[in-house]
Specification:
The protein is globular, with a radius of gyration of 20 Å. α1 packs parallel to α4. It is an alpha+beta fold and 271 residues long.
Length: 271
């Protein structure tokens, strides 16, 4: 079946960019062709996303490639979302866990409910205890905290805890959640899967103590929460997209023009 013209345009660009994705994806277990297909699937499922700028779709694809995360709503690795006419790659809860695991860390997160036994201490002798109460999540009460723990075979375990009030403050600042509350989008993980988003918030809080790729993933999502789009290029640099007063795009470093090299419609392929 033929693709819609808006999606076909992105498919053509993605196909031309496959040689750029291949070296970045080497060793990740994700092929350029599979990455392309997951992005096409995302575009087909969201008309707003399909109408985003070709440049931003390719930059999002490169971000996913650098991180080695799939782009879909099935695995929980990551997904694309439209924002101000641009596509933005957002790492999922399981994406953060995968990034940490690829660097030798086992990361787990959980939510704490009112009836659970929960004790934590910071300082020179940090301590974390969580014993869930018996019964279903509803029987255990409302969520009070979320936490994330990172284990390593040769390093001490580390953890971070986030109170539900701080989780909700982060939720309320999220551009996606604000769009949902304003009726501009029909769904958001904050509404459909709050516990997973709470765990993800705790992992993001822990990210500064984890390997660089986890920090980069948290950085681009943090920019999105602040109302900016950001991406990672094939050199591994995080760039925040900014609009100048004239509407031209800018970034944290100069971006090479690949139009002649790749025959695309501008500065594409995530660099």
């Amino acid at each position: 079946m033929a693709l819609p013209p808006t999606v076909q345009r992105h498919e053509n660009n993605l196909q031309k960019c496959l040689p750029k994705f291949a070296p970045v994806l080497a060793g990740t277990g994700l092929s350029p062709e599979k990455l392309k297909q997951t992005i096409i699937n995302s575009l087909m499922a969201n008309n707003y996303l399909a109408s985003c700028s070709p440049e931003s779709v390719m930059q999002s694809a490169m971000t996913a490639a650098v991180l080695g995360l799939e782009v879909d709503n099935v695995t929980g690795q990551g997904y694309l979302t439209p924002f101000k006419g641009r596509a933005q790659f957002i790492p999922g809860y399981k994406g953060y866990i995968t990034l940490a695991r690829n660097s030798g860390f086992v990361v787990e997160g959980d939510v704490v409910r009112e009836k659970d036994h929960f004790v934590y201490e910071r300082g020179l002798n940090p301590k974390l205890e969580h014993v869930p109460a018996a019964g279903s999540p509803t029987q255990r009460g409302e969520i009070t905290h979320a936490y994330a723990v990172a284990h390593h075979s040769t390093l001490p375990s580390i953890f971070d805890v986030v109170h539900v009030e701080d989780i909700n403050k982060i939720r309320d600042r999220s551009e996606g959640y604000k769009a949902y509350m304003a009726g501009k989008i029909k769904s958001t993980p904050w509404a459909t899967d709050y516990p997973a988003m709470a765990k993800k918030t705790a992992i993001r809080a822990l990210a500064s103590k984890l390997p660089l790729n986890v920090q980069k993933a948290a950085a681009i999502e943090g920019e999105y929460d602040r109302g900016q789009t950001a991406y990672i290029d094939d050199r591994g640099d995080v760039t925040v997209h900014k609009e100048s007063q004239s509407g031209d795009k800018g970034g944290t470093h100069d971006q090479p023009d690949l139009t002649n090299e790749l025959g695309l419609e501008g500065d594409i392929c995530g660099t």
